[in-house]
UniProtKB/TrEMBL annotation:
The chain crosses the membrane at residues 59-77, 83-99, 247-267, 273-297, 679-699, 705-725, 746-772, 778-796, 817-839, 851-869. Its EC number is 7.2.2.10. NCBIfam families: ATPase-IIA1_Ca, ATPase-IIB_Ca, ATPase_P-type. This is P-type Ca(2+) transporter. It catalyses: Ca(2+)(in) + ATP + H2O = Ca(2+)(out) + ADP + phosphate + H(+). Belongs to the cation transport ATPase (P-type) (TC 3.A.3) family. Type IIA subfamily. Residues 5-79 form the Cation-transporting P-type ATPase N-terminal domain. Gene3D superfamilies: Calcium-transporting ATPase, cytoplasmic domain N, Calcium-transporting ATPase, cytoplasmic transduction domain A, Calcium-transporting ATPase, transmembrane domain, HAD superfamily/HAD-like. It is a multi-pass membrane protein. Pfam families: Cation_ATPase, Cation_ATPase_C, Cation_ATPase_N, E1-E2_ATPase. The keyword Transport applies. The keyword Zinc-finger does not apply. Keywords: ATP-binding, Calcium, Calcium transport, Cell membrane, Ion transport, Magnesium, Membrane, Metal-binding, Nucleotide-binding, Phosphoprotein, Translocase, Transmembrane, Transmembrane helix, Transport.
Length: 878
């Protein structure tokens, strides 16, 4: 049979053909056989660039080609040493580029592997969650709303199942599925209602399918063969830097031509001018900048993973640094996603949990009712306590557990013999237990309903009449608990000698003895309060968006510091009555949105964006995908999030925690800061080299540097510190600043001016050293210029660590990588000067102590000048 014709078979025929069992699934032996036969369920990807290819790619760079041409011409003209050295340095530079690119590629691969989807399958009669790649023909896959379909399959069960197949058909409207065989001769994919296809999304209902095709044999695999997609992982910053590189290349050629002409008219030898022009070209271009930016972004992404944030789309790293509004779900993100009893009421006393006293009959009985009239449990799994059941019931069991009452022990004393399960109409649950040769009936439920079933109350160890006045006191206490946003459950019991043969609410849930009320809430995460405070200090507005009731949302938001006044909260029904224009006008007023739908989320994001805000939005459900896509930074939940929400997101929070978003914003700001530091350092160093050469030529001086010097400085002095600056610790005030305006260019806020000024300072100290040395001879002058240029750049790397603050404030030794990079560069530079073989190649000479004194003095001048300037500017601002 044609592989396309699975939809024409009945369920039983499909099961038989695939040699599987719809009730048990595949066995372990069958899985191993099918793995060998079919391979993994993956689309074959274009092979990654090999190391050798990466190495060759390094020589495609425009400036590297110029260097190679220069080396060849040097060789033809008899300058063999120059030729060899240029080739050595070009190769070393290429190796460095390969190392950096390969590390970035490996980081991105690791990132991709971390977010691979999983699927639920039936194997050996058990439902398991496995990686989608480990699914084989014959597997029985369980499908639920929000799941990705991991492979092509024939449906064997379907209950209100709807699937969105836009990846295949282009139609975003979900398709209703069934197990029935479609009629007709030529059935297009979109009409094969009894089939599900890889990469489609379950939007509604549930079902099961038997896998028919995997990997490249799926319908999406056939599309992949025809159309190979190449993911663009360049960020806007990287694109801007590429443009900058091209612009600098053109500028370098203009300067080279200009210098060549000036030198020619000054009567200098053509070869000398050619080599100087090449030196200028090399000096003008920061060859390592693109690779350094890529590695900084990649390392930043790896740091974010350690802080529980997986970046799915690289541009999000930059966007995070500009975030000005964080819209967060409440449950699980701002709260612990764990209902917890925080108050216990017995007559006329509302207690904190720590004040519960089991020696008091009222307290102990209330705890027992909550524990035994309950289907939840705590189980010991591998030494860890695992809770099973409804969150409200779990909270009651946990409370009893913490007070030393354990369910199994208590049930052995009071065996459950019957029950009336909870239902939404009665709003109660009742269990019957053997007790003192009779029975004890335990009931818990909504306080208003339960109280009507009670005629007595336990007070001071005695059962007394429940009067109307006492009822009013109880309802007042209930209101007080409700105002604290507590979910309240009433607790009651009665002892009887016998029970009816058939339990009903009417014959059992009456004449009860009221014991008390348990108040519970999903409490805020302890660490979120500090994160909210940090947000506000960083100029970021935290906003709570929840489907919960307004009173609960307001209580949690107040505790966390998200809002101060209830007027800052609004409900979904109020948003429905607003036009989009009204919402845009009022959106800044609100910090809490309660009872909202996913559609409201999209409107809220749009409203903030009209004010120019950069919005981060959290989401976990299928319906949250539009809001996640609309937001500037969509943050999906890693634990509770569906595959659909994760796919729509820019970032996944592996711990579902609000603090992770704030940490990611901090990392985003730090990464952008560090990239700016690397750019500042590299460009100011390059400008220093260009200006030094340019001034020397204009003044009709000999060239202070030869091409070998420039190449060496760019490889050694520039690369190590530039990389180290890329992992600089965050500046102390990183989360005290307002969000960065994304419209501002990378050279905004005075960076462009700083680069030029710092470059000129480096050039001037280099020329000063050259002028002192050339009074002896040209070799001494060049040696002093070369060493001063190198060491002044190394010292200058500390200047760029803080924009306005002193290096002493940031901490001179706080970046151990920079200290290491500077030390390595220093040793290599000294090696070139003091090792005779290298000294001859670089055309240098040994220097006197006095000359080294000048070099050291001139090298630290850029740091002293910049520190003084920063100090003056701080005084002026004060």
């Amino acid at each position: 049979m044609d592989k396309k014709e699975w939809f024409r078979l009945t369920v039983d025929e499909t099961i038989e053909k695939l040699k599987t069992n719809k009730d048990i699934g595949l066995t372990d032996d069958e899985i191993e056989n099918r793995r060998k036969k079919y391979g993994l369920n993956e689309l074959t990807e274009k092979e990654g660039t090999s190391i050798f290819q990466m190495f060759l790619n390094q020589f495609k760079d425009f400036m590297v080609i110029i260097l190679i041409i220069a080396a060849v011409i040097s060789g033809i003209l008899g300058e063999v040493t120059d030729t060899i050295l240029i080739f050595i340095i070009v190769i070393l530079n290429a190796i460095l580029g390969v190392v950096q690119e390969n590390k970035a590629e490996q980081s991105l691969k690791a990132l991709k592997n971390m977010s691979k989807p999983t699927a639920k399958v039936l194997r050996n009669g058990n439902i398991l969650e496995v990686k989608s790649a480990e699914i084989f023909p014959g597997d029985i896959v369980i499908l639920e709303a929000g799941d990705y379909v991991p492979a092509d399959g024939r449906l064997i069960q379907s209950a209100n199942l709807m699937v969105e197949e836009s990846a295949l058909t282009g139609e975003s409207v979900p398709v209703t599925k069934s197990i029935d065989i479609p009629k007709g001769e030529d059935i297009p994919i979109g009409d094969r209602k009894n089939m599900v296809f890889s990469s489609s999304i379950v939007t509604h209902g549930r079902g099961r399918c038997v896998v028919t095709e995997t990997g490249m044999n799926t319908q999406i695999g056939k599309i992949a063969e025809l159309l190979e997609e190449q993911e663009n992982i360049k960020t806007p910053l990287q694109e801007k830097l590429e443009e900058l590189g091209k612009w600098l290349g053109v500028l370098a050629l203009i300067i080279c031509g200009l210098i060549f002409l000036i030198g020619y008219f000054q009567g200098r030898p053509a070869f000398d001018m050619f080599m100087i022009a090449v030196s200028l070209a090399v000096a003008a271009i920061p060859e390592g900048l693109p690779a350094i930016v890529t590695i900084v972004l990649s390392l930043g992404v790896q740091r974010m993973i350690k802080r529980h944030a997986i970046i799915r789309k690289l541009p999000a790293v930059e966007t995070l640094g500009t975030a000005s509004v964080i819209c967060s779900d409440k449950t699980g993100t701002l709260t612990q996603n764990k209902m917890t009893v925080t108050k216990l009421y017995t007559y006329n006393e509302l207690k904190d949990i720590d004040d519960i006293n089991l020696s008091l009959k009222e307290d102990k009985t209330a705890i027992e009712v909550g524990l035994l009239c309950n289907d939840a449990s705590i189980e010991d799994k591998n030494g860890e306590k695992d809770t099973i059941g409804d969150p409200t019931e779990v909270a009651l069991v946990v409370l009893a557990y913490e007070k030393g009452l354990y369910k199994k022990e208590e049930e052995s004393k009071m065996k459950r013999v019957n029950e009336i399960p909870f239902d939404s109409e009665r709003k109660m649950m009742t269990t019957v237990h053997e007790y003192n040769n009779g029975y004890r009936i335990l009931t818990k439920g909504a306080i208003d309903v339960l109280l009507e079933r009670c005629n007595k109350i336990l007070i001071n160890n005695e059962i007394v009449e429940l009067t109307e006045d006492i009822k009013m006191d109880i309802m007042d206490a209930n209101k007080e608990m409700a105002l604290r946003a507590l979910r309240v459950l009433g607790l009651a019991f009665k002892d009887v000698d016998s029970i009816p043969d058939k339990l009903t609410s009417e014959n059992t849930e009456k004449n009860l003895v009221f014991v008390g009320m348990a108040g519970m809430i999903d409490p805020p995460r302890e660490e979120v309060k500090d994160a909210v405070k940090e947000c506000k200090e960083a100029g970021i507005k935290p906003v709570m968006i929840t489907g919960d009731y307004k009173v609960t949302a307001v209580a949690i938001a107040k505790e966390l510091g998200i809002l101060k006044d209830e007027a800052e909260a609004v409900e979904g029904k109020e948003i429905d009555n607003m036009t989009q224009e009204d919402l845009e006008k009022n959106v800044k007023k609100y910090s809490v949105y309660a009872r909202v739908s996913p559609e409201h989320k999209v409107r809220i994001v749009k409203a903030w964006q009209t004010h120019g805000k950069i919005v981060a939005m959290t989401g976990d459900g299928v319906n949250d995908a539009p809001a996640l896509k609309r937001a500037n930074i969509g943050c999906a939940m890693g634990i509770t999030g569906t595959d659909v929400s994760k796919e729509a997101s820019d970032m996944i929070l592996t711990d579902d925690n609000f603090t992770t978003i704030v940490a990611a914003v901090e990392e985003g700001r730090t990464i952008f800061d560090n990239i700016k530091k690397s750019i500042h350092f590299l460009l100011s160093c390059n400008i220093g080299e260009v200006v030094a050469l340019f001034i020397a030529i204009l003044l009709n001086l000999p060239s202070p540097l030869i091409p070998i010097h420039i190449l060496w400085v760019n490889l050694v002095t520039d690369s190590f510190p530039a990389l180290a600056l890329g992992v600089d610790p965050a500046e102390p005030d990183i989360m005290k600043r307002k969000p960065r305006d994304p419209k501002k260019g990378i050279f905004a806020e005075g960076l462009g001016n700083s680069i030029i000024v710092h470059g000129i300072i480096v050039a001037l100290v280099t020329l000063l050293a050259f002028n002192i040395g050339r009074k002896i001879d040209i070799t001494t002058g060049r040696t002093m210029a070369f060493t001063t240029l190198a060491f002044s750049q190394l010292v200058h790397s500390f200047n760029v660590r803080a924009k306005d603050e002193s290096i002493l404030y940031v901490g001179f030794f706080s970046n151990k990588y920079l200290i290491g990079g500077v030390l390595v560069s220093t040793v290599l530079m000294l090696g070139v000067v003091f090792i005779p073989f290298l000294r001859n190649i670089f055309k240098l000479t040994l220097l006197t102590v006095n000359q080294w004194f000048y070099i050291i003095t001139f090298s630290v001048l850029p740091l002293i000048i910049v520190e003084l300037y920063k100090g003056i500017m701080r005084r002026i601002k004060e």
